[in-house]
Amino acid sequence: MDIKLFDSPQLRENLKPFTYTRPIAEIRVGILKISEKWQNRGFNVSFDTETYLQQKFGTPNKGIAINGAVCPTDELAEAIKSLQPGQSLYANELLIAGNMDGEKVEFTGGFRMINHPWEIFQYNREQLELDFTLITKDRVSAEISDPHTVVYGKENLFIEEGADIKAAVINAEAGPVYIGNNTTINPGVLINGAFALCENSTLNMGTKLRGDATVGPHCKVGGEVSNSVIFGFSNKGHEGFLGNSVIGEWCNIGADSNTSNLKNNYAEVRLWDYGSGRFAKTGLQFCGLMMADHAKCGINTMFNTGTVVGVGANVFGAGYPRNFIPSFSWGGAAGMSTFNLKKFAEVADAVMSRRHKAYDDTEERIIENIFEQSAQYRIWDNKA
């Protein structure tokens, strides 16, 4: 069945900085991206998104329109497949599938919708458990050949072919653990479920995964990670704590960098909200770092509780940088300037070529568009 996952304009704003560079449905939460959750339930997916993203992500097909922020369940997928021509599926006043003019069909089952960046890590365990069941159903896990790896809760562990695991401790009693194909888990790694390590990723020696975390494809991770989602093609290769955080693609976190995920007064965390143009309440006591695609930080960087780092920012220096770092910022607590596009392109080309990806004309045009969109936040450029 053909479907087109559409971007609600308000949700696109709410979910920035991650939706600067992707349709909403390309957000990863759990093991899979939202779009992959639909694909794995038998749908042919396309994206109805911003014009500047369509050359990369394609134009929408003629299938039924579905809200791209909705994470499907099997029950919801069947309800959509059962819709007749001219019908639209609603949950109360929320349009899930179809169009505003369609005959209203009410869906009373449960589903998850991602409305804000912090919900990506907040609901990661829930989605990881659903994805685990979806992609491992009626399949048999590969075995661990290493005699020095210890597993607890083996029935909740699934390993794809080509995974290389040595002298690790994997505790899947607290939640499912998924190990993707061609992954490497080095000696001394400690994994607590729920956890997903996606294809072609590496956990460096002594890495500590404290649960409810996802390491996306083509990543290298070390240190300590708790309840965080790393989308893919990003590195946090050294010591340092990452908690209650979301890291986009093509990011690099310098050695011994740390995120605070709890305020000293234990108060509710506020996070920069692009939709409202101000810091918004998250309803959470624990909230760390939201780092957009192509952002980097130098060694020993200290991120305060509830920090948002925009696309292509490069953060470094002593002290705590501000809690909202606009896209294409260069600097830290001592002050910031603009990371110009020529320099950015040189870095992006070097980074992506290491993973046999091209920083081509399509990528460059997307970045140029984001650079213009985000100019309003680089206040040092706007001074008279």
Structural class: alpha/beta
Mean pLDDT: 97
Q: Based on the coordinates given, report the CATH architecture of the largest domain.
A: 3 Solenoid
% residues in beta strands: 25-35%
The strand order across the widest sheet is 10-13-16-19-22-25-30-33-35
Helix content: 10-25%
Largest sheet descriptor: 9 strands, parallel
The unreliable regions are none
Number of helices: 8
Shape from CA axes? globular
In total, the number of strands is 37
Q: How many distinct domains?
A: 2
Fourth-tier CATH superfamily name of the largest domain = Hexapeptide repeat proteins
The end-to-end distance, rounded to whole angstroms, is 55 Å
Q: What is the highest CATH level, the class of the largest domain?
A: Mainly Beta
Per the CATH scheme, the topology name of the largest domain is UDP N-Acetylglucosamine Acyltransferase, domain 1
The Cα radius of gyration reads 21 Å
What do these coordinates show?
It is a single chain. This protein has 384 residues and is an alpha/beta fold. It is built from 8 helices and 37 strands. Strands 10-13-16-19-22-25-30-33-35 form a 9-stranded parallel beta sheet.
Sequence-ordered SSE layout with sheet pairings:
Layout: E1 2-6, H1 9-14, H2 34-39, E2 44-48, H3 51-57, E3 64-67, E4 70-71, H4 74-81, E5 87-91, E6 94-97, E7 103-106, E8 112-113, H5 118-122, H6 124-136, E9 150-152, E10 157-159, E11 164-165, E12 169-171, E13 177-179, E14 184-185, E15 190-192, E16 195-197, E17 202-203, E18 208-209, E19 213-215, E20 220-221, E21 224-226, E22 229-232, E23 235-236, E24 241-243, E25 246-249, E26 252-253, E27 258-259, E28 270-273, E29 278-281, E30 289-291, E31 296-297, E32 302-303, E33 307-309, E34 314-315, E35 324-325, E36 329-332, E37 335-338, H7 341-353, H8 361-373
